[in-house]
Design goal:
Blueprint lengths: L5 E8 L3 H13 L5 E4 L8 H4 L11 H4 L15 H14 L6 E2 L2 E9 L4 E11 L6 E15 L23 E3 L6 E3 L5 E3 L7 E5 L3 H11 L4 E6 L5 E4 L4 H9 L2 H25 L1 H16 L5 H4 L12 E4 L2 H7 L3 E5 L2 E4 L3 E4 L4 E3 L2 E4 L12 E4 L2 E2 L7 E2 L3 E2 L5 E3 L8 H22 L1 E6 L8 E2 L7 H6 L5 E2 L11 H10 L7 E6 L4 H4 L13
Parallel strand pairs: 1-2, 1-6, 2-3, 4-19, 6-23, 7-18, 10-11, 10-18, 11-14, 12-13
Antiparallel strand pairs: 4-5, 5-6, 8-9, 15-16, 16-17, 19-20, 21-22, 24-27, 25-26
Bound molecules: flavin-adenine dinucleotide.
Length: about 525
């Protein structure tokens, strides 16, 4: 006789920054709920475990990117990736969350049944065979009442790589930052596996990854050239926050953290709002600062004056002007041009200039992916994410007992992740009090009015928006990029608003109480 699949109240997908945040909130606010985290990788950390390129670091401050409940204690607030990974891992260890993680489990699909009010989740578990290089795969089925997707927002298997003309002709090494070669030391530490000492490097791209890589590689490479099609806003900020570090000396760590966090939330919100209202004023200020740091001889107009308004794309933060210092030292340079073709020795540009290289790094970005690439089915109907409306930016119309984390793009991701985790716990506790097993966002009367992310022209977002859920016209179908508005919407507003249907009472027989998802926004594809 087949045994019933293992069951949990909540199943969390992903053990990155958000997955650990979700587990913390569940343990604290829903202590009687059982939960499990399924993680496709071998370690905790998500982004901060995957990306291993030289210099990998945050580009927002850790006082707002850290968890609200755990002080960031390092003096560096623009922090190395390794420290962020250690912070997430330590949180999981100290709270006993790591005992609930099942590694090397990749979720492929999840099927909701209104009859049983459960999700049936199918994962593929990988394990090593007898030979170390053998990988065995096995199907694992679990069930849960609530599915909490903390799978990030991009494809893990490969980044975005545009087709460059004749790229196969290049005889040197070509590397994407998402697949940086690594080596494991005798002590188990992951080390940089690429030898670029004394070599000529061209980094294609102008985003956060490129501006991180250039100064880091320039320390030992013969020369590093950043090749960009068009410029990005690059702003220098101190690596260490002097006010936060001072406060930590004179008061308990948690108080100092909270004060510094609010200081930075306030400052970021102010700058963002100023950019929206007075874009030319902010643009002038940023460019003036870059000019001052690069020196009067540098052509800031060509290389650091973007064609778009501030915050129309994510701004690049550089610690202590390291990128500008690398340029001033002559070890790095910027070329703003377009690629005509790859050659055996490097890249020929449209201007006729040739960039010779031993190594080309394609810092060309991420490939966005919704819900960890898994397939969702509700009462045998396949969910097409592009056809649903996002409820408060957290749930999807017509998809019961499902929430996901998508953080801010104009501020630290964790600020919103914390609010969403808190909201999900409120929702679960409300359902328990009400004695229902099912909650379904119902968008009847509402229609798609905007993409999931608005007024943001970054390539990786524009490439993906068509396949992502849409926003409606009014609350609660709007997705905010504003911490204060979200605090009101997710933390201080009643859970049972008109956008949610609560159904499937606990006490009665499931057969009688079934109320299938009635939302018309669920598109079928099979
Ligand atoms: C290079 C880089 C730098 C960044 N810098 C910043 C920054 O400075 N500030 C900021 O706020 N944000 C930054 N971000 C955004 C960043 O992704 C978030 O800060 C944060 O790490 C997201 O955490 P997460 O847990 O939601 O997602 P992730 O870190 O992506 O973790 C998702 C986890 O889910 C797992 N997973 C995915 N799909 C499945 C599946 N189907 N089955 C099982 N497991 C699955 C993944 O393996 C991963 O462990 C950066 C992103 C990148 C790529």
């Amino acid at each position: 006789m087949a045994t019933a699949p293992e069951h949990f109240d909540v199943l969390i997908i992903g053990a990155g920054l958000s997955g650990i945040d979700a587990a913390h909130h569940l343990q604290k606010f829903c202590p009687r709920k059982s939960y499990v985290i399924l993680e496709q990788r071998e370690r905790i950390g998500g982004t901060w475990d995957l990306f291993r390129y030289p210099g990998i670091r945050s580009d927002s401050d850790m006082l707002t990117m850290g968890y609200s409940f755990r002080p960031w204690r390092s003096p560096k607030t623009i922090s190395p990736g390794e420290d962020i990974r250690e912070y997430i891992t330590a949180t999981a260890r100290d709270e006993g969350i790591d005992r609930n993680i099942r590694f090397r489990h990749q979720i492929k699909r999840a099927e909701w049944s209104s009859e049983t009010a459960t999700w049936t989740v199918e994962a593929v578990k990988q394990s090593s065979g007898t030979d170390k290089n053998d990988i065995c795969e096995e199907q694992v089925i679990l069930t849960c009442n609530f599915l909490f997707c903390c799978a990030g927002y991009y494809r893990y298997s490969a980044g975005h790589l545009p087709e460059f003309p004749n790229s196969s002709r290049f005889k040197g090494q070509m590397i994407h930052p998402q697949a940086w070669p690594t080596e494991v030391s005798a002590s188990g530490k992951t080390l940089d596996g690429l030898d670029y000492v004394g070599k000529r490097v061209v980094v294609i791209g102008s985003g956060a990854t490129a501006v991180t890589l250039v100064p880091a590689m320039a320390k030992t490479a013969a020369h590093v050239t950043m090749l960009q099609r068009s410029p990005t806003y690059v702003i220098s900020a101190p690596e260490k926050d002097r006010i936060a570090n001072f406060l930590r000396h004179i008061m308990p760590a948690m108080w100092a953290y909270r004060l510094s966090r609010w200081k930075n939330v306030g400052f970021m919100t102010y700058i963002y709002q100023l950019s929206q209202r007075f874009p030319n004023f902010v643009k002038k200020g940023i460019i003036k600062k870059a000019s001052k740091q690069l020196g009067t001889d540098f052509d800031v107009d060509t290389h650091f004056t973007p064609r778009y308004r501030p915050w129309e794309q994510r701004m690049c933060l550089i610690p202590d002007a390291d990128m500008f210092e690398a340029i001033k030292s002559g070890r790095a340079s910027v070329v703003t041009d377009q690629i005509e073709t790859f050659t055996e020795k490097g890249i020929q540009l449209k201007s006729g200039k040739v960039l010779e290289a031993d190594i080309i790094v394609t810092a060309t970005g991420l490939a966005m992916q919704a819900f960890g690439g898994m397939e969702l089915t509700v009462d045998k109907q396949r969910v097409d994410p592009s056809q649903v409306l996002a409820y408060k930016g957290v749930m999807m119309s017509g998809v019961p007992n499902f929430a996901s984390v998508f953080g801010y793009i104009n501020a630290s991701w964790t600020l919103k992740a914390d609010l969403i985790c808190n909201y999900v716990c409120r929702l679960l506790n409300f359902m328990d009090r009400k004695g229902v097993r099912q909650v379904t966002p119902n968008s009847v009367g509402e229609s798609p009015a905007a993409p999931f992310v608005e007024n943001f022209s970054s390539g990786y977002i524009q490439r993906a928006l068509a396949s992502w859920p849409k926003q409606g016209q009014k609350k609660p179908w709007r997705v905010y990029q504003n911490y204060f508005r979200d605090t009101i919407t997710l933390k201080w507003t009643r859970v049972d608003d008109e956008g949610l249907d609560f159904s499937n009472p606990v006490a009665t027989s499931p057969q009688q109480s079934v109320k299938p998802a009635k939302d018309k926004q669920l598109a079928t594809s099979n």
